[in-house]
Protein backbone atom coordinates (compact mmCIF):
# COMPACT_ATOMS: atom_id res chain seq x y z
CA UNK A 1 0.00 0.00 0.00
CA UNK A 2 1.32 3.43 -0.87
CA UNK A 3 2.01 5.92 1.89
CA UNK A 4 0.42 9.38 1.99
CA UNK A 5 3.78 10.89 0.99
CA UNK A 6 4.20 8.50 -1.95
CA UNK A 7 0.73 9.44 -3.12
CA UNK A 8 1.41 13.15 -2.79
CA UNK A 9 4.52 12.70 -4.91
CA UNK A 10 2.89 10.16 -7.22
CA UNK A 11 -0.19 12.22 -7.99
CA UNK A 12 1.80 15.03 -9.51
CA UNK A 13 4.13 12.61 -11.29
CA UNK A 14 1.25 10.57 -12.70
CA UNK A 15 -0.64 13.63 -13.86
CA UNK A 16 2.43 15.03 -15.58
CA UNK A 17 3.28 11.72 -17.16
CA UNK A 18 -0.22 11.23 -18.47
CA UNK A 19 -0.52 14.73 -19.90
CA UNK A 20 3.06 15.56 -20.84
CA UNK A 21 2.92 13.52 -24.03
CA UNK A 22 0.89 15.15 -26.82
CA UNK A 23 -2.64 14.82 -25.45
CA UNK A 24 -4.24 14.62 -28.85
CA UNK A 25 -7.37 12.51 -28.70
CA UNK A 26 -7.90 9.72 -31.20
CA UNK A 27 -4.38 8.93 -32.29
CA UNK A 28 -5.39 5.91 -34.34
CA UNK A 29 -8.46 4.21 -35.70
CA UNK A 30 -7.54 0.69 -34.58
CA UNK A 31 -9.27 1.04 -31.17
CA UNK A 32 -13.05 0.90 -31.19
CA UNK A 33 -14.68 3.15 -28.59
CA UNK A 34 -18.27 3.36 -27.33
CA UNK A 35 -20.44 5.81 -29.25
CA UNK A 36 -20.69 9.43 -28.09
CA UNK A 37 -22.70 11.34 -27.18
CA UNK A 38 -25.31 9.08 -25.61
CA UNK A 39 -29.03 9.85 -25.29
CA UNK A 40 -29.93 11.23 -21.87
CA UNK A 41 -26.29 11.78 -20.87
CA UNK A 42 -25.18 15.40 -20.63
CA UNK A 43 -21.56 15.26 -19.54
CA UNK A 44 -18.74 17.43 -20.88
CA UNK A 45 -17.17 16.10 -24.11
CA UNK A 46 -13.82 15.46 -22.40
CA UNK A 47 -15.48 12.77 -20.27
CA UNK A 48 -16.32 10.59 -23.26
CA UNK A 49 -13.79 7.84 -24.07
CA UNK A 50 -10.86 8.93 -26.22
CA UNK A 51 -7.46 7.51 -27.12
CA UNK A 52 -4.36 9.28 -25.81
CA UNK A 53 -0.62 8.91 -25.97
CA UNK A 54 0.98 8.28 -22.57
CA UNK A 55 4.48 7.54 -21.36
CA UNK A 56 5.61 4.06 -22.34
CA UNK A 57 6.43 3.08 -18.73
CA UNK A 58 2.78 2.29 -17.91
CA UNK A 59 2.02 -1.43 -17.92
CA UNK A 60 -0.36 -2.58 -20.67
CA UNK A 61 -3.62 -3.85 -19.19
CA UNK A 62 -3.35 -1.66 -16.09
CA UNK A 63 -5.72 1.04 -14.87
CA UNK A 64 -4.73 4.43 -13.47
CA UNK A 65 -7.27 6.78 -11.90
CA UNK A 66 -6.48 10.46 -11.33
CA UNK A 67 -9.30 11.32 -8.89
CA UNK A 68 -8.67 15.07 -8.86
CA UNK A 69 -9.16 15.20 -12.64
CA UNK A 70 -12.02 12.66 -12.78
CA UNK A 71 -10.23 10.52 -15.36
CA UNK A 72 -9.54 6.80 -15.57
CA UNK A 73 -6.87 5.56 -17.97
CA UNK A 74 -6.80 2.01 -19.28
CA UNK A 75 -3.39 1.25 -20.78
CA UNK A 76 -4.12 -0.51 -24.06
CA UNK A 77 -0.49 -1.02 -25.07
CA UNK A 78 2.86 0.66 -24.55
CA UNK A 79 2.36 4.38 -24.94
CA UNK A 80 -1.39 4.24 -25.66
CA UNK A 81 -4.35 4.57 -23.29
CA UNK A 82 -8.10 4.97 -23.41
CA UNK A 83 -9.21 7.79 -21.13
CA UNK A 84 -12.69 7.66 -19.61
CA UNK A 85 -14.45 10.22 -17.43
CA UNK A 86 -15.46 9.06 -13.95
CA UNK A 87 -17.14 10.25 -10.79
CA UNK A 88 -15.21 9.65 -7.58
CA UNK A 89 -15.76 9.84 -3.83
CA UNK A 90 -16.68 13.00 -1.99
CA UNK A 91 -13.62 14.77 -0.58
CA UNK A 92 -13.53 12.80 2.66
CA UNK A 93 -14.36 9.49 0.95
CA UNK A 94 -11.89 9.39 -1.97
CA UNK A 95 -10.24 5.98 -2.16
CA UNK A 96 -6.53 6.02 -2.90
CA UNK A 97 -4.21 3.09 -3.22
CA UNK A 98 -2.54 0.40 -5.26
CA UNK A 99 -4.79 -2.60 -5.79
CA UNK A 100 -5.83 -5.11 -8.43
CA UNK A 101 -8.91 -6.37 -10.20
CA UNK A 102 -10.14 -9.18 -7.94
CA UNK A 103 -13.49 -9.92 -9.55
CA UNK A 104 -15.75 -8.79 -12.42
CA UNK A 105 -19.54 -9.05 -12.34
CA UNK A 106 -22.23 -8.31 -14.93
CA UNK A 107 -25.35 -6.61 -13.53
CA UNK A 108 -24.03 -6.91 -9.96
CA UNK A 109 -26.15 -6.97 -6.83
CA UNK A 110 -25.50 -4.19 -4.31
CA UNK A 111 -25.57 -3.78 -0.57
CA UNK A 112 -24.65 -0.52 1.19
CA UNK A 113 -21.82 -0.80 3.68
CA UNK A 114 -22.55 -0.27 7.39
CA UNK A 115 -20.65 3.02 7.12
CA UNK A 116 -22.94 4.22 4.33
CA UNK A 117 -26.01 3.35 6.39
CA UNK A 118 -24.58 5.15 9.44
CA UNK A 119 -23.79 8.26 7.37
CA UNK A 120 -27.17 8.42 5.68
CA UNK A 121 -29.74 5.99 7.14
CA UNK A 122 -32.60 7.70 5.33
CA UNK A 123 -31.10 6.85 1.94
CA UNK A 124 -29.53 3.46 2.66
CA UNK A 125 -31.25 1.69 5.58
CA UNK A 126 -34.00 0.30 3.34
CA UNK A 127 -31.33 -1.48 1.26
CA UNK A 128 -29.45 -3.09 4.16
CA UNK A 129 -30.46 -6.55 2.92
CA UNK A 130 -29.20 -5.74 -0.55
CA UNK A 131 -30.61 -5.13 -4.03
CA UNK A 132 -30.59 -7.49 -6.98
CA UNK A 133 -28.71 -6.47 -10.10
CA UNK A 134 -30.59 -4.69 -12.86
CA UNK A 135 -31.19 -1.31 -14.53
CA UNK A 136 -32.25 0.36 -11.24
CA UNK A 137 -29.28 -0.93 -9.24
CA UNK A 138 -26.77 1.85 -8.34
CA UNK A 139 -23.84 -0.29 -9.54
CA UNK A 140 -25.21 -0.26 -13.06
CA UNK A 141 -24.38 -2.71 -15.81
CA UNK A 142 -20.94 -3.89 -14.67
CA UNK A 143 -18.72 -3.85 -11.58
CA UNK A 144 -14.97 -4.31 -11.35
CA UNK A 145 -14.06 -5.23 -7.75
CA UNK A 146 -10.81 -3.83 -6.36
CA UNK A 147 -8.75 -6.01 -4.03
CA UNK A 148 -5.66 -5.31 -1.89
CA UNK A 149 -3.54 -8.20 -0.64
CA UNK A 150 -6.25 -10.66 -1.67
CA UNK A 151 -9.00 -8.84 0.24
CA UNK A 152 -12.00 -7.02 -1.13
CA UNK A 153 -11.65 -3.28 -0.48
CA UNK A 154 -15.45 -2.72 -0.96
CA UNK A 155 -14.43 -0.23 -3.68
CA UNK A 156 -15.74 -0.83 -7.17
CA UNK A 157 -15.31 0.65 -10.61
CA UNK A 158 -18.92 0.41 -11.71
CA UNK A 159 -21.73 1.74 -13.87
CA UNK A 160 -24.35 4.08 -12.53
CA UNK A 161 -27.99 5.08 -12.64
CA UNK A 162 -26.75 8.69 -12.46
CA UNK A 163 -24.59 9.14 -15.57
CA UNK A 164 -24.64 12.93 -15.32
CA UNK A 165 -22.62 12.66 -12.09
CA UNK A 166 -19.53 11.86 -14.19
CA UNK A 167 -16.89 14.54 -13.72
CA UNK A 168 -17.87 15.17 -10.09
CA UNK A 169 -16.82 14.02 -6.61
CA UNK A 170 -20.10 12.63 -5.32
CA UNK A 171 -19.83 8.91 -4.52
CA UNK A 172 -19.28 7.01 -1.28
CA UNK A 173 -15.80 6.09 -2.47
CA UNK A 174 -16.42 3.99 -5.56
CA UNK A 175 -15.46 5.03 -9.08
CA UNK A 176 -18.52 5.52 -11.27
CA UNK A 177 -18.68 5.34 -15.04
CA UNK A 178 -21.40 5.71 -17.67
CA UNK A 179 -22.82 2.19 -18.22
CA UNK A 180 -21.69 2.00 -21.88
CA UNK A 181 -18.20 3.06 -20.81
CA UNK A 182 -17.86 0.59 -17.94
CA UNK A 183 -19.04 -2.20 -20.25
CA UNK A 184 -16.23 -1.24 -22.65
CA UNK A 185 -13.66 -1.21 -19.83
CA UNK A 186 -15.02 -4.46 -18.36
CA UNK A 187 -14.54 -6.20 -21.69
CA UNK A 188 -10.93 -5.03 -21.88
CA UNK A 189 -9.53 -5.42 -18.35
CA UNK A 190 -8.41 -8.80 -16.99
CA UNK A 191 -8.72 -10.30 -13.52
CA UNK A 192 -5.49 -9.52 -11.66
CA UNK A 193 -4.79 -6.32 -13.59
CA UNK A 194 -3.02 -3.68 -11.47
CA UNK A 195 -5.02 -0.58 -10.55
CA UNK A 196 -3.59 2.59 -9.01
CA UNK A 197 -5.90 5.29 -7.73
CA UNK A 198 -4.38 8.70 -7.01
Automatic annotation (TrEMBL):
Q: Which Pfam families match?
A: YkuD (PF03734)
Q: Which residues form the signal peptide?
A: 1-25
Q: Which GO terms describe its molecular function?
A: glycosyltransferase activity; peptidoglycan L,D-transpeptidase activity
Output the InterPro entries linked to this UniProt entry: LD-transpeptidase, LD_TPept_cat_dom, TAT_signal, Transpep_catalytic_dom
Classification via CDD domains? YkuD_like (cd16913)
Name the catalytic site residues. Answer: 158, 174
- Provide the Gene Ontology terms for cellular component: extracellular region
- Pathway in which the depicted protein is active: Cell wall biogenesis; peptidoglycan biosynthesis
UniProt entry keywords in alphabetical sequence: Cell shape, Cell wall biogenesis/degradation, Glycosyltransferase, Hydrolase, Lipoprotein, Peptidoglycan synthesis, Signal, Transferase
GO BP of this protein:
cell wall organization; peptidoglycan-protein cross-linking; regulation of cell shape
Outline the extent of the L,D-TPase catalytic domain: 61-198
Q: Work out whether the entry's keyword set contains Lipoprotein.
A: yes
Family (UniProt): Belongs to the YkuD family.
PANTHER family listed in its UniProt record: L,D-TRANSPEPTIDASE (PTHR30582), L,D-TRANSPEPTIDASE ERFK_SRFK-RELATED (PTHR30582:SF24)
Recorded protein name is: Lipoprotein-anchoring transpeptidase ErfK/SrfK
